[in-house]
Write a sequence for this structure.
């Protein structure tokens, strides 16, 4: 039996109502327990991928920030991405994996060309019982502070309009509003330019 990490269980609790994750777990139907188990495994796979092509920061078992930092070689990136896709095809089932591909490919076309080499915040989540302790902010700051030192732009996508003010406070100001057709929901692309030492004074 596959062992699921506690932090992935927390991510599943945090993100189970996100339109993207509901779409890719469509084969769970009305079984929310099954959906949460599938998502926990999904996040385990995302962590494995990011450990190879980016970085992961943890708030103990309460949550995580999962990044693709564009620092891995093209061969390593292709290998990790292909391995994850293969595992997702089995995990999500035909309908869920088709939704995953359609949404991912559609959203990729909306990313502006100038963000092609930017560091990407793939997943951020903190379990509901642990919110209110600034864990999400601290998780993001670990990577954006390093991005500032290296002169790297960062970006993310969110379906949650309530999260926009949170990301703005962390320096993500450039915004593009898009419509995702599979879910029928709006989402936002936000980018953050690196701060210079003078900007931090």
């Amino acid at each position: 039996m596959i062992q699921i990490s506690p932090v992935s269980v927390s991510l599943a609790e945090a993100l189970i109502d996100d339109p993207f994750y509901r779409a890719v777990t469509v084969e769970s139907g009305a079984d929310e327990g099954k959906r949460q188990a599938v998502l926990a495994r999904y996040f385990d796979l995302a962590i494995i991928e990011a450990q190879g092509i980016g970085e992961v920061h943890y708030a103990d078992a309460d949550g995580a920030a999962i990044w693709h930092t564009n620092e891995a070689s093209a061969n390593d990136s292709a290998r990790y991405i292909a391995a994850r896709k293969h595992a997702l095809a089995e995990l999500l089932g035909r309908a869920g994996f088709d939704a995953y591909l359609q949404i991912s490919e559609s959203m990729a076309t909306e990313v502006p060309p100038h963000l092609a080499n930017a560091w990407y915040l793939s997943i951020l989540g903190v379990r509901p019982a642990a919110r209110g302790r600034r864990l999400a902010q601290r998780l993001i700051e670990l990577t954006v502070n390093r991005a500032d030192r290296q002169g790297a732009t960062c970006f993310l996508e969110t379906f949650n309009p309530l999260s926009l003010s949170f990301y703005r406070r962390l320096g993500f100001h450039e915004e593009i509003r898009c419509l995702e057709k599979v879910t029928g929901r709006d989402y936002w692309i936000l980018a953050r330019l690196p701060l210079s030492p003078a900007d931090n004074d």
Observations:
- The chain is about 50% helix and 20% strand.
- The longest strand covers residues 119-126.
